[in-house]
UniProtKB/TrEMBL annotation:
GO cellular component, one term: membrane
Tagged with keyword Transmembrane: yes
InterPro entries named in the record: Bact_2-comp_sensor_kinase (IPR050640), HATPase_C_sf (IPR036890), HATPase_dom (IPR003594), His_kinase_dom (IPR005467), Sig_transdc_His_kin_internal (IPR010559)
Kinase as UniProt keyword: yes
Signal peptide limits: 1-22
Keywords (A to Z) from UniProt: Kinase, Membrane, Signal, Transferase, Transmembrane, Transmembrane helix
Domain Histidine kinase: 445-541
Name recorded for this polypeptide: Histidine kinase
UniProt GO molecular function: phosphorelay sensor kinase activity
Membrane-crossing segments per the record: 306-328
Pfam families, per the entry: HATPase_c, His_kinase
Top-level taxon in the UniProt lineage: Bacteria
Amino acid sequence: MKKTIFAIIAGCLTLTSVQAQINWGDYSQSFSAEVGNKSSAVGLILAIRKENNAFWEIRDKSRHVLALEKDPIFQRERPRGFVARTTFDTARAQFFLHGVGPQMAWQYQFRVMEYPGHRVLVPWHGIERFTDSTLIHDSGMPAMAYLGGYRTRLGKMLIVDVRNTGQNQIVATSLVAWESVKPVITSVYTSETIDEFFQKLQSPWLPDRQSTGSFPPVFTVPSTNENLIFALEKGQFSKKQIQYELIRTGSVYTPWRDNAFNNSFIWIKDCPPGAYTIRIRYSAQPQHVTEYRFDVKPAWYQSNQFVLLAVIFSSVLLGACLFLLLFIRQRRKTRLEQADKNRLQLELKAIHAQLNPHFVFNALSSIQGLINKEDIEGANRYLSDFARLLRESLHHAHKNELSLHEEIQMLDTYLKLEQLRFGFQYSIRADIAINVYETAIPVMLLQPLVENAVKHGVASQQKKGVIAVVFSRLDQVMTVAITDNGRGFTEEKAGNGLGLSLTRDRIERLNKLHSDGQITLFIQKATPSGTQITLTFGAWF
């Protein structure tokens, strides 16, 4: 029965010890010289997190420690050489009792008090926990008592005493004070004084020309300044220990972020003009924030007056350009209308040699049918469009190339004529990346292909027929796709047509003349039905 009880107690002590241990390498340990020299010496070891060490250059001793060092009652009740340290974050301070293992723990008790006020947090209490094997290995010290981790508020201090119960005498004492700390800006450097900053980094013992209070409460720099460096009180800080935020004209410009350097300065670059407030804090105490204002003056071209004049000038210039553009467009429209009138007087002799006689016969038959139906308006419209197509063909007969805009107009006129006969729908679209007025194309190269789409594709579909002509651009390549939803035809059958045969011969000659801009013709089935004829113009732009 006793063995079982002892096993349960040992198991509880072991579990408590495992739960209570710390990562020894993350902490800075403070203890008396005797503890460091003798493995059997009884003394307290105080462990606080290492990042607190950076603040010791700013505030090493607490005022509470200085007060107790002068208190004769406190000194008389305790041994000399007690351990005292200052900490700054909310983490618990850890306490170990060196020289006391499980065999002799019953001889000692410990107490935790808060100062000032002497409020007892832990009354005299027996030792129940000890370091485990992992902590023994990491610390390099023998097994010792673990008294726990404790903390208090900023501005307060903890006093941990250990006494020998047999002698009723305090044998070890450790003090740890939680002190407030707030960033203090000691110097401000700009692009003009950056050399002084580098000299200060290389030789920190040199006197600082910009000591605290020597710079104005609001710092002003021109817009050409590219660097602002705020040096803080001495201390070797990591990036995560210093944080800052930038406020620009009342709004957050840069939200809270860790510092960019493992040092005691903040370096800000390339701030646009505006009124700024930099807010700096230590991550250990984020509630304590230091603020400093600085202004970045705008350049002359960034002033409100210049911006206003620029807007007025731009508005006047834009208005003049729009007026000129409308004037040019109106003149162009007038010239086109005059050109249309001139085409009515051109001879039709060359047209008969270029257009398909069968098409002319069908067109005249369609006109006769409209007249017989007494559709005078439809006949006039058909006759007008047919005459315009003849005029356009005659006008361009002596040219090798014409603009894509003119080619689209001719195709549109032709498809309108065929639409009157068969009732199909059609569309002609050009990619916005193609300048239809500056892009040239061989004369009458597309008309036989479109005519093929009408005859072999949509003629039998009547009003259900659809033809789409699409001009697209990819880099320097132009593609023309002619698609219909007819019954479709094979390339072998299409190749027997006179129009396609002449087109292939013409492409072959053009490719020989212009080796740098090759043209290819490809015929395939369209999806879900019909035929697609694709012309590719390589290196065309």
